[in-house]
Amino acid sequence: MKKVLVIVATVIVLILVGIPVSTRILGPRFIAVGAPTGKPIGEFDIPRPETSLLAVSIGVPLSMLNELANTRVPEEFEGSEQKDFHKNIKSGGYAWKAARGPIVFQNTGTSLAFAAAIQGAAQFQGNLDAKIIQIPLNGTADIAGTAGGTLSPEIQPNWSINPNLVPALNLSQASLSLGSIGKIDISDILSGSVGQLVQKEAQKLAPELNKSLDLRAQVDQLWQQAYLSEQVNDNPSIWLSVKPTQIQLAPIDYSAPEQVSVTVAIQSETFLTNLDPGAPVPAPLPDLVPLSAPVATDLNLPVIVSITELNDVLHDQSFEIDSGVGTQIKISEVEAKVGQQGLLNLKLNLKAEQSSFERGIEGEIWIQGRPIIDLEKQLLGFADIDFTVETRSKLTSVAAWLLEEILIKALESQLRISLADYKEELDEEVQKAIKSANLPEGIDVSIEDLDVQLADIYTITRSFPEAPDSPGIVVVIKATGDLATQINLIQLDQ
């Protein structure tokens, strides 16, 4: 009987001892790690200024150039000159009068060509030198041909226009019949007189273009509107300020057959401030900075994302990681805090199921990682992921191996957070701003191929100068596209 009691007592002891031993060996390890210590310090103290480029292609249809030229150039013109027009003619002279047809501009791909048909007549007079006597002669010649030339305008840094005009005159009919002398080709004689007038009238086109289209006034309107001060947050109060710094000009573009265009780019700095800067006071339009090639719009906008906003997105994120050795690691309830040296601290609620090789792990740990933008997939991700000091001190060597070899590597590849809402909001704001722009009459604005992308992300200590510490992150959003204005109305003085 005594022997039986000893056996029973032994079994009871083994059971009582075995329960915690079994739990320690076979059950999941519970981990509870506190938040990292230390003062949160962002990669930057406040959001850094972002440089943007607003490139506007200003197009002028050839139909407008036709209208301008036909309005400004007289329909009839005339001239006269005292000049011997044949070796046997003394005291010669002539007078001519011609009318032009419609002036038509053409885009040659490298310059502008313009031409108009001309038709008229010339009266010639002089004395035929017959050695003994001089016989008065009079004759009439019909004139026909085309007058025009080429323009290769260059806009100078001071906004003046150098037309680079090369006039051209082609007389297909200019023959004078003078009795016994016969027919005389007077095209060379008339070309000098008519050509001078053609050049004089053509040279009037450049200042008329400058006056009627007034590129400087159109760009000045854009320059004034580039100054921006708008409150983007109430609590705390934050203003977004945009200050233009430079005007750039690309060469004239002849690629579109029905128009010529020039790209003007306004370079500006975008930054955040905690004080209402009031209505901006624009500086005068500066001189142009010439470019060798066209540029595209490239807007960079810093958007402050508070840790509260970020955690609202992170908290709903959950995913599973396959260890490859039969263990599934479930991650949920992610929470972020700004760390130091540009890192974010992330709290993870994890549950690693037991496998044939290892016990399970369950609880909360903290890791740290550098926030990055996956430019290809346009997602928020993390690099340089590692355990915090507090987490590493809580892990046994076995648990550390499981998490470090599997979890850390998996998080770098799988912890991706969508920030698509910020992209959509900016897209809407850009479109809204274009539609509501207060542009002069006769100017149409459109934007094509608008592409909004996440470009960068970094941590900050405070939202603006003089603010108390309010650690968060800044997401830089890049918007690119082809912004074009079409001049469709010219003001002509009567």
What attributes does this structure have?
alpha+beta, disordered N terminus, 25 strands, 8-stranded mixed beta sheet, 7-stranded mixed beta sheet, rod-shaped, 494 residues
Structure in words:
By secondary structure, this protein is of the alpha+beta class. 24% of the residues lie in helices and 45% in strands. It has helices spanning 2-26, 62-72, 187-202, 205-213, 215-226, 307-314, 389-394, 397-414, 420-435; strands at 29-32, 50-61, 76-81, 89-100, 104-107, 112-129, 134-151, 154-155, 161-162, 166-173, 175-178, 182-185, 228-233, 238-249, 259-273, 288-290, 297-306, 319-322, 328-338, 344-352, 361-374, 379-387, 417-418, 443-460, 472-487. Strands 2, 13, 14, 15, 16, 17, 24 and 25 form an eight-stranded mixed beta sheet that branches. A hairpin with a 4-residue loop joins strand 21 (361-374) and strand 22. Helix 2 (62-72) crosses helix 4 (205-213). The chain is rod-shaped and about 130 Å long. Residues 1-26 and 489-494 have low confidence and may be disordered.
